[in-house]
Amino acid sequence: MTEKESLKISLSILQIDALKEVGSIGTAHAATALSDLTGTKVNIKVPHVELCRITQIPELSDFHGKEITGIRTLLKGGMNGEISMIMESTKALNLAALLLKKEPGTIKMLGTMEISALKEAVNIMIGSYLMAVTRLSGILSMPSVPELFQEDFDSHINALIEKNNTHNRYAIIIHTIVILHKTNIDGNLILIPEAESLERILDSIGVK
Length: 208
Description:
Elements: H1 3-38, E1 42-45, E2 49-53, H2 57-60, E3 67-77, E4 81-88, H3 89-99, H4 112-137, E5 141-143, E6 147-152, H5 153-163, E7 170-180, E8 183-193, H6 195-204
Antiparallel strand pairs: 1-7, 2-7, 3-4, 3-5, 3-6, 4-8, 7-8
Helix pairs in contact: 1-4, 3-4
């Protein structure tokens, strides 16, 4: 049995229900808040949630070899670490257009208004998932001001692995599909808590 297979079995038995609950609660709150923001119906689906070592992110994410746009925020408080929402850059342009009530494909590059719209929408999603963690575990985290980045996915992940180069660091990947005006925007919400923070969260929700 490989390390990857062992980790997935451990997750399916001990952790997947709790992580799915975080995804379910976060999704419901995020969809409602984004619907209020845009004045139109927004649906969010979470096909699956995974817990993996940070070195396994390239195998489990959806964007190998692609140019991505992401929003990153640091976390302090009961849970320390970082959380980011990444999507293919063409999808980010379409999402920005939809948020600004324009047709997908009409925005060719991100300007100040587009970046602001993306940050606001993703900040809502991140906040919703953090609220779900707090609701289930009682652990409160404070996010920093969101930061936008654009780069090749593999370069981004390699830098992320190098920065967090320890066997004790895990990532929670929430595969997300935002549906707005019949347009699907696929993204990965990647939470990388510090080792002690992850253990504290799982212990708090009764997963050991």
